Each structure stands twice: as structure tokens, then as C-alpha cells.
Amino acid sequence: MSTIHFIHPPGYKELTWNKKIEQAALPKRAALTLSQHTGAPSEPVVNVGDVVKTGFLIAKSKGFISSNLHASVSGKVMAIENHPHPVVGFFKAVVIESDGQDEKAFSSSGRDISGISREEITEIVREAGIVGLGGAAFPTSVKLNPPPGKKIDTLIINGAECEPFLTCDYRLMIEKPKEIIQGIYLIAKTLGVKEVIVGVEDNKLDAIEALGSALFMVKREECRVKIVKLKTRYPQGGEKQLIKVLLNHEVPSGGLPLDIGCVVNNIQTVFSIYEAVCFGKPLYERVITVSGDCLKEPRNLLVRVGTPIRDILEFCGLDTKSDAHKIVMGGPMTGVTQYDLDAPVIKGTSGILALSMDFIAKGRETDCIRCSRCIEACPAGLMPCMIGLAASNNRFDIAGPYDPFDCIECGSCSYVCPSRIDLVQLIKLTKVKLKKK
Ligand code: SF4
Ligand code: SF4
User: Fold this and answer.
1) Which of 240, 408, 422 to mutate for ligand 1's pocket (most ligand atoms within 8 Å of CB)?
2) Ligand 1 in contact with 380 (CB < 6 A)?
3) Topology at the third CATH level for domain 26-101+284-358
4) For residue 432, how far is its CA from the centre of ligand 2 (angstroms)?
5) Alpha helices (H) in 157-224, listed in sequence order
6) Are 423 and 384 a contacting pair, CB within 8 Å?
7) Inter-residue contact 409 to 424 (CB < 8 Å)
8) Which residues in the chain show pLDDT less than 70?
9) What is the per-residue pLDDT for 2?
10) What are the tens digits of pLDDT across the range 34-67?
């Protein structure tokens, strides 16, 4: 990956650039799926009929790579049952009927954190169920607790938000810059790093300015925070790509950022760490962008985890009875098409898009014409056409040498392919097949 390849899809961010973050209505019923993070699903610690407050622990992490789950509304547990899931179809969920009171299970008054230790911060983050909010939903406490022998010297904060349509991180940067800087200092203290780099693309100059000003307003800590303006291009927000752009270091094939002394956290994850450490708030809500050309009112919303997609789309002016739309959870490049609008927002949901036929690839898939555009577009330096060819011929055994596990599933190859071959889906399938072997 000595040179990274990027593409420049249209951004469509102007639909929500100027939309301030608004609190979405509380859901009448919140369905909190037990699988909304990387790793083992969480284990319920409530029973049907229990009465819970907002922020109450309802399911515990089960293993090192797992996460706690908290009630996102106050009310009564009505069921623990299979429920539509936005990524895997169906999964067991704790369903809570809201009493409309939103009574909190935590005090939410600010606490003195001046003498807080690294261990205490990591434990608060673990207890609060915080996961990476850029989409991967990897448990954050694991990132804050590198294995013995792995020395972290650089913390990178991912403010690229390179996926088209999404502006939720941008809005957080301009609306909550001081809180984000405080969150950065907390993470830097936990990891013991002296060097922090915040990467923000140059289509968000006011976010760069807001964070820069906040640096002077927040009490300085021992580390140095540098805010770096990046060119706008896709997929710069991939961890490995961001590290290469900012440090010119390469994460080895099959390796992790911590193998080269880096930890990467997304802007919204930083904000949720600030809220958990300073106010004791578990992760039960997040900011998402709701956008697309089928909505009367695209918005940036603070949404409770477990809220049905249908409620959010209706709030933004979509007639959900019409079928001339494609509904996507996430962005258009990496998002997942939704077929059941009862599926809920999960911790990793960065956006919901309602798109017309204009945004859907037209025409039939045809044979590969060996144009190599997918190779030229791949930020991981792979040969997507070769993996796709092997997969479409059911020869997963010969796909291995083309390093499918280095694929970050950015979708650039599918986007540029003139034969409309859905390469990223073929690569995802290849990974599943090879893992099973
Ligand atoms: S989806 Fe994977 S193979 Fe395709 S361009 Fe992105 S990293 Fe490369
Ligand atoms: S971009 Fe499509 S047509 Fe071109 S080489 Fe890749 S798979 Fe084949």
C-alpha cells in the first residue's frame, strides 16, 4: 500500500451541513438488540416485566471483545425476543415500552475528574458500553487497554467523515468543540501519549477553526494536539488510510494500528467518552444524519438507540408507504440496504438515507472487461477483480493469495466498475467462506 488510491464521489453534504443537531422524539418502544458491536453479543440481565430507567444496565458484555448495553428509555421490559436487525436480519433484542418520563438511572451532574486515573477512565468507558461510533462498533475500552508490550505513542482522531451525505461528526465538531478537546485529553491521558493528531477534511474548514479555538479554551494537558487539514477524498477515514496519510506509516497486512504504536478514535466516540467520564452517561443515544433526496426535511438528530428506522424517516418527512425508495443505514458507499423499517438504530448507525431511483445503479451486471479501474481505485492496494472472479466462480480457495482480509469494504471498487459488478459483496462473501474453512 505504498500509494493510497482515493476516489471523489459527489458529497451531497449540503443537504444537512447547516442542520443543527436536534433531539429526536423518544420511541414508544425501543428494541435494543444484543448484537450491536464487534465481538460476542451481550447477555441480558433484566427479565420481562422489569421496570427500568434510562441508562440502566440491561445486558452485560460477555467476554473481552463485547460491550454492555443500557436502556435508552425508561419504562417496562415487554419482551426479550428475536427482532428485525439492520445488519444481520434478525437478532435477539430487549424490547422496552417507554413510559414517556425518561427518568435517568444516573445523576448526570458533572463530577470532579481532576485526579482521575487511567484505570478509572478505562473502567468507566467499559461500563458505559462505548464502542467505535464511526461504524465498526469495536469496544473502545479494548483500544484504551493495549496488550503488554504494545507501546502507543500517537493518538489519531478521525474527523474525516469522508462518506457522502453524512454530516453528524461535522455538526458535533462545530457544536461541541470544547467537549471534544476534553475527550481527546482524557483518551491521551489513558494511553499515556504525548502526540495527538486530529485529521479533518478541507470541506469542513469551520470545524477545523472551531476545534482550533477550543484548544485555547480548555485547560491544557501534557500532550500536544495538532489539527491537520486533509484533502477531501474517499475513503480517507479508514484507519489504515488515515494513518498512512497523517504519519506515512503503514499498518502491516493483517495487523492493527497498535502494531505501529497508534490508536485511532472517531469524533463521536471521543464525545461519548467525555460524556461518560464527566457526567456518568452510558451510551444510549447518538447523533445520526438522516438524509437523501426522498426526504422533505433532512436532519441531524440525536436519536435513542433502539428507535425504529420508520419513526426517524417519518419525522424527516418520508412517506414510508411509498415503495419508490431505497433505504440505507449508514452512507451510500458502506451502508446496508434496509428491508424492514422496524429495524432499530444501533450504536454503529451513523446515518439513514432515503434515496430515489436516481441513486440506484442502473442496468444489468455484465462481464468484467479487464479495465483495471477497480485496482486503480482500491485504497488497500488489492486486486478486487481477481477476488471477484474467484468468488463468482465459487473458487474461494484461489482468492486467498489476493489478501481479501485486507479489504476495508469501502465500496470504491463497486462504485467505479463499468460492468456494475458488485465487487465488495463478492469480497465480503469470500471473507465469510474463507473464515469458515
Ligand atoms: S471494497 Fe475492498 S477491494 Fe474494494 S476498493 Fe475497498 S478496500 Fe479495495
Ligand atoms: S472495474 Fe470491473 S470491469 Fe474493470 S477490471 Fe474491475 S471488475 Fe473488471
Assistant:
1) 408
2) yes
3) Ubiquitin-like (UB roll) (3.10.20)
4) 22
5) 168-175, 177-191, 205-217
6) yes
7) yes
8) 1-2, 321-324, 361-362
9) 64
10) 999 989 999 999 999 999 999 999 999 998 899 9
